[in-house]
Design goal:
This protein is α+β, with helices and mostly antiparallel strands. It has 19 helices and 25 strands. Strand 3 (about 105-110) and strand 4 form a beta hairpin. Helix 2 (about 25-35) runs parallel beside helix 5 (about 160-180), helix 13 crosses helix 17 (about 565-580) and helix 16 (about 545-555) packs antiparallel against helix 17.
Length: about 625
């Protein structure tokens, strides 16, 4: 087949396949043009997921008739000061977006500079350009895209549902709105209420306010400020708490010099920073802004400008990992702020449903909900004939020896909810030291169900999961010992034989050198068995056979492509789980307080190795709202 030049319309359609793979990509290009034009206000309308209509109106600098004609020509751009392709200070310059969109859709552009007396319009339908003509418009630019891919109907088969395409378009606008807090946005779609994000100041406070506008107050309230600088590169923004995570990485918003990107280096660095704080199937919520010399990053490695290439990727990775790690480990332990809100909502729903007279049938036995104790002289509120109830509570009063609920003679079930404490719950049995009340986690006052520690602070209550908390402490001890001088081993007086599935035993035996670095010395002992000779001293009286069995089950999941240190940390996390205080163990007050003090000194103590919260804080104000005291 002889060589030939392709027609310009076909060239445009080939370019469109690279730049405009879906409506969200076309919308992103148009909004970027509005931002590069200096717009302070952008209004966006989407219909049919963007296939039927996308309209973007801005109050930017606008274009005159000559510029409007050039705007739909390939490789025409106003975003390069000269010919240096590395000195990029705008959101893009490839010069293919508008002609590519016009080759596969019905495109119209109306624009008017501030100093012009009138506006002008140009239309492009399926690659065919119309002459520029006068039009009516205030200053700025309006771009309309209708019937996307009508000129290439085969592309329509690759689009998802209208709802999915709308969601992708909204996400693209969200990322640009986060990148430019000083610009006001209005977004109107056909399947949800309009979104309006007012312009904010272009500083740290404005950035945080815009993040709360776009991602929601819950995300803003469960994030930490981050700030880092390394060899000329600066990182800022918000990093979500490990206890506030998502099932995918779509809530990771990353920006390089104000440009939204999805870069493997950045995503990998975020995962490394959270590796000890989240399970592998959970992802943090982040909004991170990376600023560096434009010559240190290539923004033109992808036609859609969503990927970048760094000159020194190692420096960028180190900056992100160190900055996020420092932010997540600094200061007192902190857990998600939504727990109290959820508890309040649950309590309101429960009581408003169960105790409204109109919510019960006429023959409802109110004695199940409220009854007076024997000898009680008062009466209940006069609700629908409630004065005839039997005289008793349906839960036990505390016994005289101070043993707490459940210690009375009636054998009740604890407020009728089956939640009677299974351990010592005397609130006054352990006087709270004044200095302990001022500590972040307060003073231990009780243990419930031999699993949860109740601590009192000066202005609230803290509920601690003793196993999850101690698991984090043991894990951090293992890490520190590995970095310092290796783990101390404890030789077993009598070696343990652990029976396993033959394949699991063989697989774990292959990992013996790595396990030995962590203080666990094993060796094959016939078919389907392992002999354990030494264990890490930090694990104390851990259930060694159970530990070996769990390690054997997960040995197949250990990724040999990971660095040895990362593989060792995964093994250490499993060991920490087995070497920590188990749920169901009764603790003395001294032990509980010791655990709280050690949590306050332990990095990442707000969550265990699996990403679950180790404690929940209830402010006194939240508790008072539960009981309608405020």
């Amino acid at each position: 087949m002889p060589l030939r030049l392709l027609p310009s319309t076909l060239v445009d359609r080939i370019a469109a396949g690279e730049v405009v793979e879906r409506p969200a990509a076309a919308l992103k290009e148009i909004v970027e043009n509005a931002l590069d034009a200096g717009a302070s206000r952008v209004e966006i309308v989407i219909d049919g997921g963007g296939r039927r209509l996308m309209r973007v109106t801005d109050d930017g600098s606008g274009m005159n008739a000559e510029e409007l004609a050039l705007a739909v020509e390939r490789h025409a751009t106003s975003k390069l000061d000269g010919e240096d392709l590395l000195a990029i200070h705008t959101l893009g310059f490839r010069g293919e977006a508008l002609p590519s969109i016009g080759s596969v859709a019905r495109l119209s552009i109306t624009s008017r500079p501030r100093e012009a007396e009138s506006a002008f319009e140009i239309r492009v339908e399926g690659g065919v350009k119309s002459p520029v003509r006068p039009a009516a418009l205030g200053f700025g630019t309006r771009v309309e895209v209708r019937d996307l891919f009508f000129a290439t109907p085969a592309r329509l088969k690759f689009l998802k549902s209208e709802r999915a395409e709308t969601a992708a378009a909204v996400d693209a606008v969200k990322r640009l709105a986060l990148a430019r807090p000083e610009v006001g946005f209005t977004l109107v779609t056909d399947d949800r209420p309009p979104l309006t994000w007012p312009a904010r100041a272009r500083d740290a406070a404005g950035q945080r306010a815009r993040i709360a506008d776009v991602l929601g107050q819950e995300a803003g309230g469960n994030a930490l400020d981050v700030e880092g600088l390394r060899e000329g590169a600066r990182l800022s923004g918000l990093a979500g708490l490990p206890t506030y995570s998502k099932a995918n990485s779509l809530s990771q918003y990353l920006f390089v010099n104000g440009r939204p990107v999805r870069d493997k280096v950045l995503i990998g660095a975020i995962r490394a920073a959270y590796a000890d704080l989240l399970p592998s199937d959970r992802h943090p919520v982040t909004a991170l802004f990376l600023n560096l010399d434009p010559r240190e990053v290539d923004v033109n490695v992808h036609p859609a400008k969503t990927e970048v290439r760094f000159r020194d990727a190692g420096n960028i990775r180190a900056l992100i990992v160190r900055t996020l790690t420092d932010a997540l480990t600094a200061g007192a332990p902190r857990t998600t702020s939504t727990a109290a809100d959820r508890l309040t909502q649950f309590a309101r729903r429960d009581f408003s449903t169960d105790y409204r007279p109109e919510a019960r049938p006429d023959n409802y036995d109110w004695s199940r909900s409220w009854a007076a104790p024997e000898g009680f002289a008062g009466s209940r509120p006069d609700h629908a004939g409630l004065n005839e109830a039997p005289s008793r509570f349906d839960f036990d009063l505390p016994a005289g020896d101070g043993r707490g609920f459940g210690g009375g003679s009636g054998g009740g079930s604890g407020l009728g909810l089956g939640l009677a404490p299974s351990a010592d719950a005397r609130a006054n049995a352990a006087p709270a030291a004044a200095e302990a009340l001022e500590r972040p986690l307060g003073a231990a006052r009780a243990q419930l169900h031999e699993t949860y520690i109740i601590a009192q602070t000066r202005d609230g209550v803290v509920v601690i999961d003793q196993h999850a908390a101690h698991e984090r402490i043991v894990y951090e001890r293992l890490k520190a010992a590995m970095e310092r001088d290796g783990l101390a081993r404890q030789m077993l007086l009598v070696p343990l034989v652990v029976e396993l599935d033959p394949s699991e035993a063989a697989r774990l035996a292959e990992r013996a050198p790595a396990l030995e670095k962590l203080g666990l010395v094993i060796e094959p002992f016939g078919a389907g068995a392992l002999l354990v000779r030494e264990v890490p001293a930090l694990l104390g009286n851990a259930d060694v056979p159970a530990l070996v069995r769990e390690l054997a089950e997960h040995a197949a999941e250990w990724d040999d492509a990971l660095p040895l240190e990362r593989r060792l940390l995964r093994i250490a996390a499993t060991m920490a789980c087995h070497g920590s205080v188990r749920a169901g163990r009764r603790l003395r007050v001294e032990e509980m307080n010791a655990l709280l003090r050690e949590m306050e000194e332990t990095p990442n103590a707000a969550q265990c190795n699996h990403g679950r919260p180790t404690f929940v804080t209830l402010a006194l104000a939240d508790i008072e709202r539960l009981f309608a005291r405020r």
